[in-house]
Amino acid sequence: MLLELSHTWKFPNHLGSLQFSPSGKYLAAIAGNVLNFIHLANGWEPVAALDLKAELGLGNCNLSFHPTDDTLAIAGGRWVPWPDNPKTGQDYLGIAYFPDPGGPPSRCFLTKALSGSNSLALLPSNVVIAGAGTSIAWIDLEDQSLTDLVSEVVQPYEEIFSDWPLARGMKYNPVDHSVAVCWLSVCESYLYAYNLAFTVGREIERYGIGGVQHSCFCRFGFRPDFKRLAVAVGYHESNTWEGQLGDLEKQTGKFGYILVFDYEPRPVIQRFEIEAAVGTNFRITGVRDSKGNHCHYWYGIGDGMSNPVFVEDTMILFGLPGGDIGTLDTTTGKVETCARCSRNVTMLDYSTKKGLLAAGCDDGTTYVWQVKSVRNE
Fold first, then answer.
1. 47 C-beta neighbours (distance < 10 Å), count
2. What's the sign of the alpha-carbon dihedral 31, 136, 174, 345?
3. Do residues 359 and 320 touch, judged by C-beta distance below 8 A?
4. Contact 310/224 with Cβ under 8 angstroms?
5. What does the alpha-carbon distance between residue 363 and residue 370 come to, in Å, rounded to a whole number?
6. Does pTM top 0.90 for this prediction?
7. Pairing relationship of beta strands 45-51 and 34-39 according to DSSP bridges
């Protein structure tokens, strides 16, 4: 794959979201609690920066573009103290809707339900929010009404989760009007899809997409035609190394795997193992005996892979903690490195309209490349 670096930005805070608009005209990023819009057709100049904490009182925010236009929704949390006792209060979920990138929000409101979550998907005239406690709700932007859609999962809570689960990823599929949600606990991840084509008041249809439960690192993304879904999973287990540290850092270890699902009829169709350099991608810890003498090393994943993105039907990109961006050809299973960043790559996004790849790092550094060719033939 041939990439040409177009632009680099250094936002002052950790990136929470990074997305191209459907038209490819804008790149939106939430760094810290600041929403930034970059106009790609206007010299790549930032067109607006809104401090969501100062202006709207929202923190820990996430964003979602409308599937077909450049309208945008933000979800974040706000703690509101009680009037009679300012030291105690209530957590609220805040929603802000932006009809024009760079402009002010036209709607902003709070709801007590689903507090503690910021996963969302913007639908035509509606926002679907995934929240804590295995709950999903439909929030109407016009009248601000909330309808509970899901209040349980396939198995009882005690059998699935070792602690309180949270929705840590949500993608809307406009083709079949469903939403895929990743539920995350301390050391388990579960991926489910929910059919939203229903009459309000009836139970929502629910089906699993593989039930990934091996790791606390699970991120996913659709192919542009929404017929396939890729899931990046990191291994949770630690490994033991009896040799020298320098030799360990030169090794390659099993980092995780990428699953590729057909969205209809939803079987797992492919699984690809991903290996990575131990010295730059794994967390290494020295272990000593009771006398303080060195025994061996443990190494395992500190951070997982970024969300995978499709750049064509059979080519997937993913980011690694060491800064590498890898390519996976699902036809051959071949994995290569196509670019390198300065820090841990936590998120990727690809604009099919413009052929642009964006990568966000854990220190706020953001890279954008023009994809010149997908294959090197």
1. 13
2. positive
3. no
4. yes
5. 22
6. no
7. antiparallel
Contacts of 367 (CB under 8 A, 6+ apart): 5, 7, 8, 339, 341, 358, 359, 361
- Would you say 139 and 127 are in contact if contact means Cβ atoms under 8 Å apart? yes
Task: Say if residue 31's pLDDT is above 50.
Answer: yes
Strand order in the sheet with 283-288: 239-241, 294-300, 283-288
Give the whole-angstrom CA distance, residue 362 versus residue 344: 6
321-362 pLDDT, tens per residue? 999 999 999 999 999 999 999 999 999 999 999 999 999 999
> Strands 85-98 and 252-262: what pairing?
unpaired
Kindly state the tokens that stand for 357: 């790849």
Q: What is the dihedral of CA 156, 181, 98, 106, to 10 degrees?
A: -20
Q: DSSP letters of 233-267?
A: EE----EEE-S-HHHHHT-EEEEEEEEEEETTT--
Cα angle, residue 59 at apex, residues 56 and 62 outer, rounded to 5°: 100
The two three-digit tokens of residue 16, written as one number: 């929470």
- Alpha helix ranges (H) inside the chain: 52-56, 157-160, 245-249, 278-281
* Displacement of CA 49 from its chain's centroid (Å): 22
**Secondary structure of 175-186 in HEC code, one letter for each residue:** CCCEEEEEEECC
**Contact call for residues 374 and 328 (beta carbons, < 8 A):** no
- Average predicted confidence (pLDDT) for the chain: 83
* Residue-wise pLDDT tens digits, 262-271: 876 666 778 9
Q: The tokens of 127 are what?
A: 């926002």
Dihedrals phi, psi of 281, to nearest 5 degrees: -120, -15
Given a contact cutoff of 8 angstroms between Cβ atoms, the answer to whether 113 and 152 are in contact is: no
Sequence length of the chain is: 377
